[in-house]
Amino acid sequence: MKKAILILTLVGILLAGCGKVKDGSSETTVAKSMTENDYNEDVEKLTDKSVYQTIVEDFDSDNNNEAFVLTRKGKDNEAVEDEFELWFSNGDKTERIVADFIADNNTSIMLFESGKDKYVLFNKAQTTQNDEMEAKIYGVSSEKPVELFSQSRMNISVEKGELYTYDYTYFVLEPGSKDWMSQSEQKYHLKWDNENKKCSDYKANVMSEKEFNKISNSKDVKKNIEDALKKEYSDGIKNVKYTYLTREDSTLDINTVVTDSEGTKYKNYVTVLHKDDKLGKDVVIQEGNKKVSILEE
To answer: What is the number of other CB atoms lying within 10 angstroms of the CB of residue 23?
Structure first.
């Protein structure tokens, strides 16, 4: 009897200590029991930086968790700029996937879920040099990180399960000047193709003035824009040029180029709901002109 108990105990120890269990006909993966702290400790053994943010999930649905870890050199969270790295760990292997870079303290990683699939958004943030901003989207395949999307001069956010990005444009042209000046921030809706693991623009088409005027509420919207511009440029307006961009996400961007009484030009835009051949009447003037496309082909 004692021998039988001993044998059963040894079998139990062997099964608990291995990653796979065989029942004679199939092989089943047993989940690794690593905590967020375990992943953090593995990363900190390999770097001189401290853990800043960690996301632990079963990204590739294999019953094993993986972790993305953002590290930061400084301990002062209020510092404007710091040194960062991005790491990945599957529990067995820990690797640095983005080497040392300087960025501001809005740099972050965040979880993005689409259907049953999970991804990580990585934003390299810069407030003083927007050309050094960068956004990446990572997935995991066979316990390895896969970069699915990367583009500079933007950061990506998640709102109600949808992706949005902020882009920058110049919107003031002084008389006699050759270049537009003064940067403004603009918000764009992005389309995530979960089947093909791809990020793209919602398609936009330029609409003519004649086509715009046929839409229900278009006259009211135009009047609301004119009234808002008169308040914005109270010293007088010489001319307003309109451009209309209709998008797949049921919105319409109305770009304007306003020439004021002194000859200075200003780019502005309004985004309104465009659904069932009808426009929403809410008008909020924003700086800059919207683009047809913001993502590189």
So the answer is: 7
CA distance 198 to 67: 22
Can you say whether residue 235 is alpha, beta or left, with left for phi > 0 and alpha for psi between -120 and 50 degrees?
Answer: alpha
**Is pLDDT above 70 for 163?**
yes
The 10 Å Cβ neighbour count of residue 167 is 19
DSSP code, position 32: P
Backbone angles phi, psi at 294, to 5 degrees: -115, -15
SS3 state of residue 46: coil
Tell me the pLDDT of the chain averaged across its residues.
88
CA torsion sign for 185, 189, 194, 200 is negative
| Whole-number Cα distances in Å, 44 to 17, 69, 95, 106, 147 | 26, 10, 11, 21, 23
Amino acid identity for residue 62 in this structure: D
Are the C-beta atoms of residues 106 and 122 closer than 8 Å to each other?
no
CA distance 66 to 39: 9
CATH 3.10.450 in the chain: give the residue spans: 204-287
d(CA 87, CA 73): 14
Q: Is 145 exposed, middle or buried (0-12, 13-18, 19+ CB in 10 A)?
A: buried
Among 123, 120, 155, CA closest to 140: 120
Task: Return the CATH architecture of domain 204-287.
Answer: Roll (3.10)
Q: What is the pLDDT, as a whole number, of residue 129?
A: 65
Cα–Cα distances (Å) from 94 to 29, 91, 194, in that order, read: 20, 7, 27
Q: How far apart are CA 69 and CA 86, in angstroms?
A: 6
pLDDT in tens, 71-109: 999 866 666 889 999 999 999 999 999 999 999 989 999
